[in-house]
Specification:
Layout (H helix, E strand, L loop, with lengths): L1 H22 L5 H15 L1 H27 L4 H14 L8 H23 L22 E2 L3 E2 L5 H25 L1 H4 L8 H19 L1
């Protein structure tokens, strides 16, 4: 499993980061990290879009789901069986909202490991991880935009990154909420699974960014 992780995620991201560092004017490692993050956002966009579509579909199905839950509220086994059959019939998966979070966590762990390994190596790149077309930049420049030392913890940058992620996620959720406002009026006032998952992602992502 570790070999698959390294070959499929860790090493490609390692090379993307170093490649961007090489081509960015002034070889600013902080800017390279930001550029790599943007690259990841674009790469994971299809997964995020699929999650949004899945949430919308579950919201559309909420009236029928609530009906099944109420009909078999005294028989949990029958309720579960009917719900599974209903999900299968409508090609819906109540757990589909977990996938984007899991994928993002995997990539976040990879980026974290890359940065830790480079830092522990004295800001020297491990050439054994580089592809043949990615040049070894030598010792990494530890200054971000000329005056912030990346070798020292920066609470300001961590808070800024976490805040930016929070508002980005909130804007996406707000947009989806407006689009589905009329549908939600017809559903129960109880929060559905997809809504709860979205709220968890709203706070979990920024918290991980802040402390990692």
């Amino acid at each position: 499993m570790a070999e698959i992780f390294n070959a499929a995620i860790y090493q490609p991201l390692y090379n993307v980061l170093i490649f961007l560092y090489n081509v960015i004017p002034g070889q600013d490692f902080g800017v390279a990290i930001i550029a790599t993050t943007i690259f990841l956002k674009l790469l994971l966009m299809p997964v995020s879009r699929k999650q949004i579509e899945s949430q919308k579909k579950l919201q559309e199905l909420q009236p029928k789901i609530k009906e099944i839950q109420n009909r078999y509220k005294d028989n949990k086994e029958k309720q579960t069986k009917e719900l599974m059959a209903f999900y299968k019939e409508n090609k819906a998966n109540p757990l589909s909202g977990c996938l984007p979070l899991i994928v993002q966590l995997i990539f976040l762990i990879a980026i974290y490991r890359i940065l830790i390994n480079i830092s522990m190596a004295g800001l020297v790149v491990d050439v054994s991880n580089l592809y043949s077309f990615v040049a070894d930049p030598g010792k990494i420049n530890h200054m971000f935009i000329g005056f912030i030392k990346l070798t020292e913890p920066s609470r300001g940058l961590a808070i800024l990154a976490a805040t930016a992620q929070y508002f980005q996620t909130k804007m996406i959720m707000k947009k989806n909420k407006k689009e589905d406002k009329s549908k939600k009026k017809r559903t129960s006032s109880k929060p559905d699974f997809s809504s709860m998952m979205s709220k968890q992602m709203l706070y979990l992502g920024p918290v991980l960014t802040l402390f990692i």
